[in-house]
Amino acid sequence: MKDLFEKINAEFDTFKTESDSLIEKGVKAAGARARKSTLELEKLLKEFRKVSIEESKK
């Protein structure tokens, strides 16, 4: 679970960096990378929810 948490944090950092580039600098390619990052975050957060529920049942 700790590994999953680290992956979520790393992906969120990527999203933050790319979205900052899009908003502040107007880099259009950063927008695509930020959107891709949100899809990955969605997968990771669903996995976290699944693991969290399994852990709470123990």
Automatic annotation (TrEMBL):
Signal peptide: none
Alphabetical list of InterPro entries matching this protein: Hc1
Domain of life, per lineage: Bacteria
GO molecular function: DNA binding; structural constituent of chromatin
Pfam families: Hc1
Coiled coil: none
Chain's role: Might have a role analogous to that of eukaryotic histone proteins.
Family: Belongs to the histone H1/H5 family. HCT subfamily.
Name the record gives this protein: Histone H1
Naturally occurring in which organism (per UniProt): Flavobacterium hydatis (Cytophaga aquatilis)
